């Protein structure tokens, strides 16, 4: 996985006001303690961003409501779950974009191009579609029993437990006791289960993209083969949780104990892990599965254990893990305090030497010296 160019909204706006217009290949992330805070979209509301170029990037769950985006180019960018409500979209190109569940209500179209884009679940109420181009667009057809949040709650209360294959995007199921619920292969994009109890639940093979699991109890929960892309598990309780072969890319795992989860074969990358205990089970995760991990500037060392083959640890201020720079040296840790190494681009493998339970861990030498003091077992 290539390392993305990350930028916060405030930085983007500052650079834009200073004259920069091209932000191609940038991934815009919310400037708070979480990569994703589904209940609060970071805002470009009412901003004048005429001529903005954000091609082949990512800006999910943002609000461009009532913004002036005349002549902007978003080609190839992922903008799912964002809102362009009331925005001026004259001569704007969304060619090849991912616009899943994106809200264009009352947006002003004029020569607006959506060609080759995924517009599944997108909202276009109050717009003049004749002023836009929709050639070769994809609209996902989701099959299954369609239910509302209220119907799920009512039928669960009456004793139903098996909701296999249901379709309920944006389900509001927070703060509930849903022990033993079966949601296999369910389509639950943008749902919330925050503060709910999903003990013994089965969410295997479910679509759980952009879902909130904040403070959710996931004890003995089966989430194997589920797609949790861009979801937040902040402070969720993992206890014998089955996340085998799950897609955990771009998730927030802050404040969790990953030692309570089974993650063999899971895709883990570009995750936020503030005060996260990754546990011993990440030691053997491959570089392909776990290519980038973000450590928060707060919380000291952040995660306690990382794979000995992590490609990059970025954004950390802790000298124990990485320098105060956008990215640590590719292939190893880089430390401004010298705990690991100042420059390590040519290293093939590195492990925390203080962790004696890493069997056979190796740290490549640099100028005849190991990366840090400590003993390997």
Task: List key phrases describing it.
10% strand, three-stranded parallel beta sheet, disordered C terminus, two-stranded parallel ribbon, little secondary structure, single chain
Which percent range describes the beta-strand content?
A: 5-15%
CATH topology of the domain at 1-140: Pectate Lyase C-like
What fraction, in percent, of the residue positions are helical?
A: under 10%
Q: Find the count of extended strands (DSSP E, 2+ residues).
A: 15
- Average residue pLDDT: 76
Structural Rg: 22 Å
Biggest β-sheet description: 3 strands, parallel
- The residue ranges in which pLDDT falls below 50 over 5 or more consecutive positions are 33-40, 283-377
Query: Biggest sheet: strands side by side, in what order?
Result: 13-14-15
Number of helices: 2
- C-alpha end-to-end distance: 31 Å
User: Multimeric state of these chains?
Assistant: single chain
Structural class comes to little secondary structure
Which geometry do the CA atoms define?
globular
The name of the CATH architecture of the domain at 1-140 is 3 Solenoid
Helix/strand order, N-terminal first:
EHEEEEEEEHEEEEEEE
The CATH class name of the domain at 1-140 reads Mainly Beta
């Amino acid at each position: 996985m290539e390392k993305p160019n990350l930028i916060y909204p405030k930085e983007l706006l500052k650079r834009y006001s200073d004259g920069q217009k091209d932000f191609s290949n940038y991934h815009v992330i919310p400037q708070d303690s979480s990569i994703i805070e589904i209940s609060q979209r970071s805002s470009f509301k009412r901003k004048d961003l005429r001529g903005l170029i954000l091609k082949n990037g990512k800006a999910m769950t943002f609000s461009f409501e009532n913004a002036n985006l005349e002549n902007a180019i978003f080609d190839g960018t992922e903008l799912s779950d964002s809102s362009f409500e009331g925005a001026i979209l004259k001569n704007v190109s969304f060619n090849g974009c991912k616009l899943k569940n994106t809200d264009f209500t009352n947006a002003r179209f004029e020569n607006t191009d959506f060609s080759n884009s995924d517009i599944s679940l997108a909202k276009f109420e109050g717009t003049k579609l004749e002023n836009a181009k929709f050639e070769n667009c994809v609209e996902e057809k989701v099959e299954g029993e369609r239910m509302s949040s209220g119907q799920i709650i009512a039928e669960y209360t009456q004793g139903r437990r098996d909701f296999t294959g249901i379709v309920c995007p944006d389900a509001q199921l927070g703060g509930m006791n849903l022990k033993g619920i079966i949601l296999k292969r369910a389509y639950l994009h943008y749902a919330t289960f925050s503060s709910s109890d999903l003990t013994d639940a089965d969410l295997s093979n479910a679509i759980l993209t952009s879902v909130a699991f904040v403070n959710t109890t996931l004890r003995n929960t089966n989430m194997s083969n589920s797609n949790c892309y861009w979801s937040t598990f902040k402070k969720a309780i993992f206890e014998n949780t089955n996340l085998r072969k799950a897609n955990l890319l771009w998730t927030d795992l802050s404040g969790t104990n990953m030692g309570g989860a089974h993650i063999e074969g899971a895709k883990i990358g570009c995750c936020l892990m503030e005060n996260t205990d990754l546990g011993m089970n990440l030691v053997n995760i491959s570089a392909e599965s776990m290519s980038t991990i973000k450590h928060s500037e707060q919380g000291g060392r952040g995660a306690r254990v990382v794979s000995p083959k992590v490609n990059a640890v970025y954004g950390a201020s802790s000298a124990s893990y990485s320098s105060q720079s956008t990215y640590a040296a590719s292939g190893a840790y880089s430390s401004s305090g010298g705990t690991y190494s100042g420059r390590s681009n040519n290293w093939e493998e590195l492990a925390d030497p203080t962790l004696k339970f890493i069997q056979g861990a190796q740290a490549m030498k640099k100028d005849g010296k190991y990366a840090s003091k400590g003993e390997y077992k």
